[in-house]
Design brief:
By secondary structure, the chain is mostly helical. About 35% of the residues lie in helices and about 5% in strands.
Length: about 160
């Protein structure tokens, strides 16, 4: 919500999508989520800037290797800094900006195959709760956007 409040145009667009698709129903249900494409872009961008776990679970190297010129001996515990990777300007244009539209092409997703974007990890140790978390995040955000108008306090600039 803080990113949406700091980006009122994105908030208005997401809110318009939710309200147009729900149209006067008393509550948002999971069945209502199918057509909320922009809402999913907002969630992806939020997870890019604010991954739920900034450092993925520790890994242990199974063999000696060299990474970016550094020697990594066999048995070394390694942490993947997904927070830094998801904000790396080498992979993301305007990396520090909140721009959900960057995910419109659909070429990058959090399913663990795009290593520049791994808010839930990847491979065998990908978060087992990812498939549960996705609809819950969508449902919660859709309900907040549907029922409430939020904005920054008077005089506070985004």
């Amino acid at each position: 919500m803080s990113e949406l409040m700091r980006n009122p145009n994105v908030m208005r667009k997401a809110q318009a999508e939710v309200r147009e698709n729900i149209k006067g129903k008393p509550n948002v249900t999971e069945d209502d989520l199918a057509d909320l494409k922009y809402l999913r872009l907002v969630i992806k961008e939020t997870l890019r800037l604010h991954p739920s776990v900034p450092l993925l679970l520790p890994r242990e190297s199974t063999e000696t290797s060299k990474v970016l010129g550094y020697d990594v001996p066999k048995g070394t515990t390694v942490f993947v800094n997904t927070w830094a990777i998801c904000r790396d300007p080498k992979y993301w244009d305007a990396a520090e900006e909140f721009k959900p539209e960057r995910f419109e092409s659909g070429s990058v997703d959090f399913k663990g195959t795009n290593f520049e974007y791994t808010p839930f990890g990847a491979g065998r140790r990908i978060c087992p709760g990812m498939l549960f978390a996705q609809p819950i995040m969508e449902l919660a955000l859709a309900a907040l956007l549907y029922h409430f108008d939020r904005e920054l306090p008077h005089g506070v600039k985004p």
